[in-house]
């Protein structure tokens, strides 16, 4: 009992029940690591960005996939993290600046999520209303990022964000920042997957299935949802800081509606609630986006839009569950 | 004094527009509980209908008619092709309508280019109200919006479609069991809601720079009009649009428009927090 309650009990559970997902994740990460020395500059940075956005998608999936509440403004947390790092890191400089920047990039989104979540979740705002309110938060954040020029630099954003520096090592080259992004992704994946497989995840699943019943079992469901949102926001903020540190620039688009939409797309493509799926979805969609953009950049929103509609009708649970079903059907045929 | 009159009339203009956009959404969201994220695009489509009508020399009334027709047809197609299959899957409906919204924006951009378009107001000049000159077109807009609102309110009360609609809003299963064709009621209501939004877009066209993305500006605001007012009532739409539109014009007068939009949404969220059922209970 006590082992389960401590959260780390989930690790055993993770390897017993979700073994296939974890294996898929580890194989993919290892493949990327092995391939990375042979990649050119362009593909290395593209892969690094995909790993960072994959972390962002993972954060959304931990909240949306596990609780069923759709946050339509998740880029707010990513963007706040990015701005926080960009503002704090240059103040101190060096390792101290990087650490303080990362700390701010996690703390500020967690605080923002805490305030918003406390305000909304404890008032019983759920479902449609939660989605609309979070969508509005994205609009608000974008307006603020554009109009608060003194802090955010307005439309031009903040440039010259310092790269991450840890104990004299500067994560400046694309390869080193790719390792950094991949390493963080693997680490945080295990944290989130362990939590999901353990007691916390079970409570969240119970809330998603029937919140009234979960409450009658004695769980403070609003508090559980709030904790999930804050953890999710912290990871999103961390991803935002990594993006700021590796790309060197922060612009209002990072808190905007389109990024909020795209992260939803990544989660949906990969498979909501699977944690691995959204990461894989991010890699696939971003790769696809590069191919399309090399033909025409203006075409991308159209494809995202039509893609949403097609996905909803063909693979509403995402590619991973769809592939799993296909796989089972194929192997089923083979044995019969 | 004259400042106050201008602020009040500006608030009335914005309130009228939001009222029409919110009215369409109140019908769609209130009735079917579908978060139609493509609703804002009907405003954009209506505004571009005005541009087309102006280029073709159809005039203002022609533009309104074109907007209404395109809006109704588009709404019908959207409901028939996509939304009706997703009534039982709310999250999928959100994603699909958002996809439609992105696609519409891009198609408008491909058709009309990225630059802003403008259309002239059908009536020029100003009318003097209590010693203050105010653009005549804005007064026309307020009048037309009120007329549409009253017409729809009467239609809700007096026509059999209105009766069906109210019955379905109150209890879908019961309405179905007494023989109301809910599928038909849904598609007609969706078409009406979209047409009203398109008309709002056509009416606002002479006042703004018409961009393919203008729909997004109205989307969040009109959702709050519906929620703040109270889901499922005409009076709620009136109260909600007065709240959002009034505050927005008041704050925009002191601060920048983009800051005022942020503040108004924030205030709306706070209101929803303390009065989730809305200002007017249905």
From TrEMBL, chain A:
Pfam families: BPD_transp_2. One of its GO terms (molecular function) is branched-chain amino acid transmembrane transporter activity. One of its GO terms (cellular component) is plasma membrane. The keyword Zinc does not apply. Its main location: membrane. The keyword Ribonucleoprotein does not apply. It comes from the Bacteria. InterPro entries: ABC_transp_permease (IPR001851), LivM-like (IPR043428). Coiled coil: none annotated. It is found in: Cell membrane. Keywords: Cell membrane, Membrane, Transmembrane, Transmembrane helix. The chain crosses the membrane at residues 21-39, 45-64, 71-88, 100-122, 129-151, 171-192, 225-251, 263-285, 297-316. It is a multi-pass membrane protein. This is Branched-chain amino acid ABC transporter permease. It comes from Sulfitobacter alexandrii.
């Amino acid at each position: 009992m006590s082992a389960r309650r401590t959260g780390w009990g989930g690790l055993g559970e993770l390897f017993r029940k979700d073994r296939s997902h974890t294996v898929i994740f580890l194989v993919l990460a290892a493949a990327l690591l092995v391939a990375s020395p042979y990649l050119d500059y362009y593909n290395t940075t593209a892969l690094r960005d995909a790993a960072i956005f994959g972390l962002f998608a993972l954060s959304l999936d931990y909240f949306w996939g596990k609780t069923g509440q759709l946050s339509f403004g998740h880029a707010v947390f990513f963007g706040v993290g990015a701005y926080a790092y960009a503002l704090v890191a240059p103040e101190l400089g060096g390792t101290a600046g990087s650490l303080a920047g990362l700390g701010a990039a996690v703390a500020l989104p967690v605080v923002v999520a805490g305030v918003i979540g406390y305000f909304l979740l404890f008032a019983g705002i759920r479902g449609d209303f939660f989605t609309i309110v979070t969508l509005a938060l994205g609009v608000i954040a974008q307006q603020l990022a554009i109009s608060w020029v003194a802090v955010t630099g307005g439309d031009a954003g903040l440039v010259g964000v310092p790269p991450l520096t840890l104990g004299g090592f500067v994560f400046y080259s694309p390869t080193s920042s790719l390792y950094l992004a991949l390493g963080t992704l693997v680490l945080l994946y295990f944290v989130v997957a362990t939590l999901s497989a353990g007691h916390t995840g079970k409570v969240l699943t119970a809330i998603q299935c029937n919140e009234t019943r979960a409450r009658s079992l004695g769980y403070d469901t609003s508090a559980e949802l709030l904790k999930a949102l804050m953890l999710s926001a912290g990871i999103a903020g961390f991803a935002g800081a990594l993006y700021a540190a590796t790309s060197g620039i922060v612009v209002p688009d990072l808190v905007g509606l389109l990024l909020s939409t795209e992260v939803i797309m990544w989660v949906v493509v990969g498979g909501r609630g699977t944690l691995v799926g959204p990461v894989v979805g991010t890699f696939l969609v971003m790769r696809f986006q590069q191919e399309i953009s090399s033909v025409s950049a203006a075409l991308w929103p159209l494809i995202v839009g039509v893609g949403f509609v097609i996905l909803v009708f063909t693979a509403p649970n995402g590619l991973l569950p769809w592939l799993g079903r296909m796989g089972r059907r194929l192997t089923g045929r083979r044995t019969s | 004094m004259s400042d106050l009159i201008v602020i009040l009339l500006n608030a009335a203009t914005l309130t009228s527009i939001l009222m029409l956009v919110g009215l369409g959404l109140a019908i769609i969201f209130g009735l079917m509980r579908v978060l139609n994220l493509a609703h804002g695009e009907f405003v954009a489509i209506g505004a571009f209908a005005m541009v087309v009508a102006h280029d073709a020399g159809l005039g203002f009334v022609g533009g309104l008619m074109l907007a209404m027709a395109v809006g109704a047809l588009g709404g019908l197609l959207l409901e028939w092709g996509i939304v009706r299959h997703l009534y039982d899957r709310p999250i999928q409906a959100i994603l699909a309508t958002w996809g439609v919204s992105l696609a519409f924006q891009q198609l408008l951009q491909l058709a009309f280019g990225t630059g802003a378009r403008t259309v002239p107001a059908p009536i020029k000049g100003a009318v003097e109200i209590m010693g203050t000159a105010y653009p005549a077109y804005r007064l026309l807009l307020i009048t037309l919006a009120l007329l549409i609102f009253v017409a729809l309110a009467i239609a809700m009360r007096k026509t059999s479609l209105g009766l069906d609609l109210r019955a379905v809003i109150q209890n879908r299963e019961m309405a179905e069991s007494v023989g109301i064709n809910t599928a038909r009621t849904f598609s007609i209501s969706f078409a009406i809601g979209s047409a009203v939004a398109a008309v709002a877009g056509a009416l606002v066209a002479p006042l703004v720079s018409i961009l393919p993305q203008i729909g997004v500006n109205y989307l969040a605001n009109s959702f709050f009009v519906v929620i703040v007012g109270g889901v499922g009532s005409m009076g709620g739409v009136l109260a909600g649009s007065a709240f959002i539109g009034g505050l927005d014009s008041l704050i925009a007068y002191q601060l920048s428009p983009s800051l005022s939009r942020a503040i108004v949404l924030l205030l709306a969220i706070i209101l929803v927090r303390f009065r989730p059922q809305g200002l007017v209970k249905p």
